[in-house]
Amino acid sequence: MLMESITVGFLGYLLGSLPWAVVVARHYGVDILSQGSGNPGATNVRRILGKGPGRLVFFLDALKGFLATSWPAWVFGGEAGILPVLGLMAVLLGTSYSCFLRFKGGKGMAAAIGGLCGLMPSVLALGLGVWLGVFGLFRYVSLASMAMSASLPFWAWLLKKPKLDVLTALTIAVWVIWRHRANIKRLAQGVEHRFTKSP
């Protein structure tokens, strides 16, 4: 199992490191790292380039998380054990500290959503409900993402998921909130970017 774990971790990190926001933005002639918040994520791409490119980046980043958690189960079947969770942790690490971006990266929210789609779809569905509610009320993507992440361990516990799932949900919550620490500061200062409703 050691070699399997190393393989899953290595491939998950490389998969997570793929900077889709940078690639998509470059296709439009934009250096996303120097525009907007400078964050290589779907929200910043949407802010700078519009809904289409933003949605594409979100899909591609979420796909990274889904593949990282799903392929170990496809390959190893019932013997996969903790490998799908290891794949998710590795893809989050790669997304946030990409070897292709000098170990910088995004927040990891889209990758986490994709991973949860493979691991705990029911927990994800409830978490997305929280995201929609908070975003609808306050129009802050960062606040909605943190609220959703914080709710994940509660939903996993409420649905009586195994301890590993609850711990995984808690790890995602801590990771995503920690990666949003600059957003927390901007929210406290009242300067965080708010998405306004289209007329």
Notes on the protein architecture:
The longest helix has 26 residues, at 51-76. The protein is 73% helix and 0% strand. By secondary structure, the protein is an all-alpha fold. Helix 3 runs antiparallel to helix 4. The protein starts with a helix and ends in a 10-residue tail after the last helix. The protein folds into 2 domains: 1-119, no CATH class; 120-199, no CATH class. It contains 10 helices and no strands. It has helices spanning 2-17, 20-27, 42-49, 51-76, 83-96, 109-119, 121-138, 141-158, 163-179, 181-189. The model has no long low-confidence stretch (mean pLDDT 95).
SSE topology:
Elements: H1 2-17, H2 20-27, H3 42-49, H4 51-76, H5 83-96, H6 109-119, H7 121-138, H8 141-158, H9 163-179, H10 181-189
Helix pairs in contact: 1-4, 1-5, 2-4, 3-4, 4-5, 4-6, 5-6, 6-7, 7-8, 8-9
Low-confidence spans: none
Distance between the termini: 55 Å
Write down the overall mean pLDDT.
Answer: 95
The ordered string of helix (H) and strand (E) elements is HHHHHHHHHH
Secondary structure class reads mainly alpha
Notable characteristics:
199 residues, mainly alpha, 2 domains, 0% strand
Summarize the structure.
With 199 residues, this protein is an all-alpha fold. The protein contains 10 helices and no strands. It folds into 2 domains: 1-119, no CATH class; 120-199, no CATH class.
